[in-house]
Amino acid sequence: MKTPQPLQSAANEEDVTIARREYDDENVVTVDFGPGVEVSLDCLGDLAIVVAGARQFEFEMPAEATDVTIKNGMLVIAESDR
Known about the structure:
This protein is mainly beta.
Protein backbone atom coordinates (compact mmCIF):
# COMPACT_ATOMS: atom_id res chain seq x y z
CA MET A 1 0.00 0.00 0.00
CA LYS A 2 1.36 3.39 -0.96
CA THR A 3 1.48 6.28 1.47
CA PRO A 4 -0.92 9.07 0.39
CA GLN A 5 1.02 11.81 -1.42
CA PRO A 6 0.29 14.70 0.99
CA LEU A 7 1.72 12.63 3.86
CA GLN A 8 4.73 11.50 1.82
CA SER A 9 5.44 15.12 0.86
CA ALA A 10 5.30 16.15 4.54
CA ALA A 11 7.78 13.40 5.42
CA ASN A 12 10.15 14.66 2.73
CA GLU A 13 9.99 18.29 3.95
CA GLU A 14 9.21 18.22 7.68
CA ASP A 15 9.78 16.19 10.83
CA VAL A 16 7.15 13.62 9.87
CA THR A 17 8.24 9.97 10.01
CA ILE A 18 6.56 7.19 8.03
CA ALA A 19 7.02 3.51 8.83
CA ARG A 20 5.71 0.56 6.84
CA ARG A 21 5.28 -2.83 8.46
CA GLU A 22 4.19 -6.15 7.00
CA TYR A 23 2.60 -8.74 9.27
CA ASP A 24 1.12 -12.16 8.50
CA ASP A 25 -2.42 -10.83 8.10
CA GLU A 26 -2.01 -7.11 7.40
CA ASN A 27 0.19 -4.32 6.10
CA VAL A 28 0.39 -1.11 8.12
CA VAL A 29 1.58 2.41 7.34
CA THR A 30 2.20 4.49 10.48
CA VAL A 31 2.70 8.26 10.27
CA ASP A 32 4.32 9.97 13.27
CA PHE A 33 3.94 13.76 13.21
CA GLY A 34 6.50 14.34 15.96
CA PRO A 35 6.63 14.44 19.75
CA GLY A 36 3.85 16.30 21.50
CA VAL A 37 1.83 16.93 18.34
CA GLU A 38 -1.90 16.44 18.87
CA VAL A 39 -3.45 14.54 15.96
CA SER A 40 -7.10 14.21 14.95
CA LEU A 41 -8.78 12.38 12.07
CA ASP A 42 -12.06 13.05 10.29
CA CYS A 43 -13.33 10.78 7.52
CA LEU A 44 -15.89 12.05 5.03
CA GLY A 45 -16.67 9.23 2.63
CA ASP A 46 -13.34 8.38 0.97
CA LEU A 47 -11.71 11.65 2.08
CA ALA A 48 -9.51 11.65 5.17
CA ILE A 49 -8.72 14.93 6.91
CA VAL A 50 -5.86 14.79 9.39
CA VAL A 51 -5.02 17.73 11.63
CA ALA A 52 -1.60 17.47 13.25
CA GLY A 53 -0.82 20.47 15.39
CA ALA A 54 -1.18 23.51 13.11
CA ARG A 55 -0.95 21.44 9.91
CA GLN A 56 -3.82 19.89 7.96
CA PHE A 57 -3.59 17.07 5.42
CA GLU A 58 -6.38 15.92 3.12
CA PHE A 59 -6.17 12.79 1.00
CA GLU A 60 -8.27 10.09 -0.60
CA MET A 61 -8.04 6.96 1.49
CA PRO A 62 -6.16 4.21 -0.33
CA ALA A 63 -8.63 1.80 -1.95
CA GLU A 64 -6.97 -1.15 -0.22
CA ALA A 65 -7.14 0.45 3.27
CA THR A 66 -9.38 -1.48 5.65
CA ASP A 67 -8.83 0.76 8.69
CA VAL A 68 -7.66 4.34 9.21
CA THR A 69 -7.25 5.41 12.83
CA ILE A 70 -5.24 7.45 15.31
CA LYS A 71 -3.31 5.37 17.86
CA ASN A 72 -0.94 6.85 20.43
CA GLY A 73 -0.89 10.16 18.54
CA MET A 74 0.03 8.54 15.21
CA LEU A 75 -2.01 8.00 12.06
CA VAL A 76 -2.33 4.29 11.25
CA ILE A 77 -3.50 3.06 7.84
CA ALA A 78 -4.02 -0.69 7.73
CA GLU A 79 -4.64 -3.12 4.89
CA SER A 80 -5.91 -6.49 6.03
CA ASP A 81 -5.12 -9.68 4.11
CA ARG A 82 -8.10 -11.46 5.69
